[in-house]
Design a protein that fits this description.
By secondary structure, the protein is an alpha/beta fold. It folds into 3 domains: 179 residues, Rossmann fold (3-Layer(aba) Sandwich); 99 residues, N-(1-d-carboxylethyl)-l-norvaline Dehydrogenase, domain 2 (Orthogonal Bundle); 102 residues, 3-Layer(aba) Sandwich (Rossmann fold), CATH 3.40.50.720. Helices cover 43% and strands 14% of the residues. The chain is built from 20 helices and 16 strands. Strands 3-2-1-4-5-6-7-8 form an 8-stranded mixed beta sheet, sandwiched between helices. It has a 6-stranded mixed beta sheet with strand order 12-11-13-14-15-16, sandwiched between helices. The longest helix is centred in the N-terminal third of the chain and has 18 residues. 49% of the residues are buried.
Length: 509
């Protein structure tokens, strides 16, 4: 079977198909377009011509190169016309029977040397290939929208796929300027799988009434550096796309609690509040622009501040808090116990404020917790107990906002917001490599590119500290008795041994 790909046919010329065609043309391939919908392939060709014209106008592509690219683009009127291609990529509707029928038909048209690839985002490559006489030449080739800008593509080996096919697709991805990341055929593959932690934990916090969507988004965006908050992302991708994917992955993993969907998004879907394209989701939109953007929480006016007593789990954390309070002009108590008038500022991990008050033996009416997983120079998350007085809460909020750094107050929760989300993101990434779905490098680079995270999740886990992440998960698991927070073996072993989360398993001879 040939492994040199010089010509490609794309069946299905929507946004994804056209995007794949663009990067293939820019890489010098001959590209044929076919779509069963009348006029769709020709419309895609016209759109690609407009795209190249704009790229020339902006100086991103030379005029001669654009003309050359368009000279290698062909619109086919029958499926039989793709017979001479080295590779056929299907980018049709995300329905198993439709993809199976197409590949079955293609097998009767193309030669034995032709590679058949599916751009499926959520269906099993093995299932799609199961109807083929030669499933060994079928692989997943999953791009992300917009294809020219998202420089990553998942190359998925079905159970019957010849490894040489994946090798050829990875080489083609590199030729097209994309990073090919290799994945086993599992639900969600790599990027959509890893992304479940970010979205589903945000929905779980919404269910528990920990904070409003805008506050959760703000904490994760400003505090942890995510490009978008989870609810902003839901509105962008649209719930009619994302909610079925959440349900599909949950069911494909046999209802593993880590992937649990939310009834809240199901109700929103039923109401048609699917996001930006509908004008309403977690936020409201007009002409695609968000309306009434929620502002940061109003800082209370406080005339006099109480002294502050600090409780932390490590001396390093205590030093961070004391230094912050000194900069803010607070009077910090140095005693082993707080005075009767002191605000008790605690920095726990994994537990809620109620448990923190018990752990540090402080008056819950004067207790306020702060999340030190977040760099306090970027953002500050405060969490009162159920009993914290309004006077102490206002004083703590106003004190922490004195230097203009953003402050968000949430309701009592295990692990605040950032701790919960980051522990879940890192733990799920560890599970993916534990299951040998992909390599450490492909996971980290793929997720960083595909989801726009500041770091790959394993590298991020190393930066936060594997032992600290494990500590957070154990405490959340103990307090909630929810198996969604159970620490994985990859994380636990490396944390216990003081190793990097990017430490690979030793070779077994």
């Amino acid at each position: 079977m040939t492994q040199t790909i010089q010509s490609m046919a794309i069946v299905g010329t929507g946004v994804m198909g056209a995007g794949i065609a663009q990067i293939a043309l820019q890489a010098g391939l001959k590209v044929s377009l076919f779509d069963a919908r009348s006029g769709a392939a020709e419309a895609a060709r016209s759109k690609l011509k407009e795209t190249f014209d704009k790229l020339v106008e902006k100086g991103k592509v030379a005029s001669a190169d654009a003309i050359d690219a368009m000279s290698r683009l062909y619109v086919e009127t029958t499926l039989d016309s793709v017979a001479g291609c080295d590779l056929v990529v299907e980018a049709i509707i995300e329905k198993l029977d439709a993809k199976q029928n197409l590949l079955r038909e293609l097998e009767s048209i193309v030669p034995a040397t032709c590679i058949l690839a599916t751009n499926t985002s959520s269906l099993s490559v093995t299932s799609i290939a199961s109807v083929c006489q030669h499933p060994e030449r079928v692989a997943g080739f999953h791009f992300f929208n917009p294809v020219p800008l998202m420089k990553v593509v998942e190359v998925i080996d079905g159970l019957a796929t010849d490894p040489a096919i994946g090798d050829a697709l990875q080489a083609l991805a590199a030729r097209m300027g994309h990073r090919g990341i290799r994945a086993k055929d599992t639900p969600g593959f790599i990027i959509n799988h890893a992304g479940r932690a970010y979205s589903t934990e945000a929905l779980q916090m919404l269910k528990e009434n920990v904070a409003a969507p805008a506050d959760i988004d703000r904490i994760l965006r400003e505090g942890m550096g995510f490009r978008m908050g989870p609810f902003e992302l839901f509105d962008l991708t649209a719930l009619d796309v994302s909610h079925p994917v959440i349900e599909s992955i949950y069911n494909q993993f046999y209802q593993d609690p880590r992937y649990r969907p939310s009834s809240h998004t199901q109700r929103m879907l039923e109401a048609g509040f699917v996001g930006r394209k509908a004008g309403r989701g977690f936020y409201q939109y007009q002409d695609g622009q968000r309306q009434q953007v929620p502002s940061a929480q109003q800082v209370p006016e406080v005339q006099a501040f109480p002294p502050v007593w600090v409780g932390a789990e490590t001396e390093a954390d205590k030093a961070v808090l004391v230094a912050l309070l000194d900069r803010l002009g607070a009077k910090v108590e140095a005693g082993s116990r707080p005075s009767q008038n002191a605000l008790c500022l605690l920095a726990p991990y994994g537990i809620d404020a109620a448990q923190a008050a018990l752990q540090f033996d402080t008056d819950p009416a004067r207790t306020l917790c702060i999340d030190l997983l977040i760099d306090v120079s970027r953002h500050r998350t405060l969490m009162p107990t159920t009993a914290t007085s309004s006077t102490m809460l206002a004083a703590g909020h106003a004190l922490m906002a004195k230097d203009g750094v953003g402050v968000t107050v949430i309701r009592d929760s295990v692990g605040f917001v950032a701790q919960r989300v980051m522990a879940m993101v890192v733990n799920l990434a560890c599970e993916i490599v534990q299951q040998n779905i992909t390599s450490i490098q492909d996971l980290d680079e793929g997720v960083a590119r595909g989801l726009g995270y500041p770091l790959g999740p394993l590298a991020w886990g190393d930066e936060l500290g594997a032992r600290r992440v494990l500590h957070i998960l154990k405490r959340m698991s103990d307090l909630t008795a929810d198996p969604r927070y159970r620490p994985g073996l990859w994380l636990r072993r490396r944390a216990d041994l003081g190793l990097s989360l990017r430490t690979a398993e030793p070779a077994v001879v």
